[in-house]
Amino acid sequence: MTTGFFGDITSIDYEGPESRNSLAFRHYNPDEIVAGKRMEDHLRFAVCYWHNFVWPGGDPFGGQTFERPWFGDTMDLARLKADVAFEMFSLLKAPYFCFHDFDVRPEGANFAESRRNLEEIADYFGTKMEQTGVKLLWGTANLFSHRRFMSGAATNPDPDVFAYAGATVKACMDVTKRLNGENYVLWGGREGYETLLNTDMARELDQMGRFLNLVVDYKHKIGFEGTILIEPKPQEPTKHQYDYDVATVYGFLKRYGLENEVRVNIEQGHAILAGHSFEHELATARALGIFGSIDMNRNDYQSGWDTDQFPNNVPEMALAYYQVLLAGGFTTGGTNFDAKLRRQSIDPEDLLIAHIGGMDCCARGLKAAAKMVEEEVLSGFVEARYSGWNSSEAQGMLNGSMTLEQIAAKVEASDLDPSPRSGKQEWLENVVNRYV
Fold first, then answer.
1. What family does the Swiss-Prot or TrEMBL record give for this protein (predicted)?
2. Could you write out the DSSP letters of every residue in 145-157?
3. Beta bridge partners of 46
């Protein structure tokens, strides 16, 4: 049964690269085998609830542009929103979705009512998931929109806000587990500061560390088998956020003894805001052993804020999925489209067209990345570049069997004078271009 929101659109199918149908996939073929695995199983696409079904189309200079029949704060409208959402998931053949608690249920008069609303919608989701086969990639809590969180959630100077945030996360984790979610994400939208003039940073970091330990302890207590993820973001809305980038998050996890318990959900737009490339953040997570999942959206490179646009740059996607494949691919994670329409894209079909283009772009990037991995042109060059470290003498400098004095004596005795070798950056960049 359809809601009628998408008119007479009944199916979005793979039609191949020559298709000119804007409501068909040209490159995303779920059953195509790439590097020994179905494309759907590699990419693990998820559609987000918030941007697609909650955002009204506003910006800092203008209000709502989208008119959606489910906008409003009643349970009946929340169920209608779910009906349209699952219809869209099914049309796109997306295997997963993601949500915040605030996205799916109306705010109650108190915490208990909000929790009951969430649990009632979770029951409705359960039925929808059974009917459609769509699964939950991850759940999370909105700990940033309501005014109670204006000074942070876990890092708030008021312990009552810390407690409220903890209760909210518990409720969301319970629902995520009930719906067989494969991950739980903590996105610290306001876990940072606007000014150091009113901030005790050491205290706030300790609060945040304790909060995350409480979450991990509860995960084990309830037998949640999914992965706990942190989503790094450098700024916006706060001047500085404590989960600035992957490296910062890793340092935080190490300090509070959580590096083996928590992984990262990396967003392309947040990587750009931090002054990095997406592939840098992915490579950092891979090197540190904390790679988990990704939010796939881009920023406008002429804007200094998080524009959350759908991906359309195949070379960027190829380099991103190259790092994902080198990390072993997704386990519990996946590719969530944390992206939104432009405020002028007001037609219902625009929601579908945006995701179709993004999914096609990612599919092309994945296939290019898989070919680069298979042919080992890049990895072979890197391996050869560091091959000198394979000798026993070179290893002795790293494993502690040689002291600094012994290393210095060796240099003097051998009259060592290393000759630089080219890094071949331009050649490697040209090689990448062969695949995209």
1. Belongs to the xylose isomerase family.
2. SSGGGTT-STT-S
3. 96, 336
- CA 78 – CA 126 distance, rounded (Å): 14
Catalytic residues: 100, 103
Is the model's pTM score more than 0.90? yes
Does residue 311 have a cis bond before it (omega within 30 degrees)?
no
Every domain range in the chain assigned CATH 3.20.20.150: 33-375
DSSP code, position 198 = G
Residue 97's closest CA among 105, 86, 106, 107? Answer: 86
Band of the pLDDT at 277, cuts 50, 70, 90? very high
Six-digit token string for 100:
């915040």
Please answer whether residues 117 and 103 qualify as being in contact, where contact means their C-beta atoms are separated by less than 8 angstroms. no
> Confidence band (pLDDT; 50, 70, 90) for 1?
low
Name the CA radius of gyration of the chain, rounded: 24
Binding site residue list for Mg(2+)? 231, 267, 270, 295, 306, 308, 338
> Which parts are annotated binding residues?
231, 267, 270, 295, 306, 308, 338
Residues whose CB falls within 8 Å of the CB of residue 248, separated by 6 or more in sequence, listed in order: 232, 242
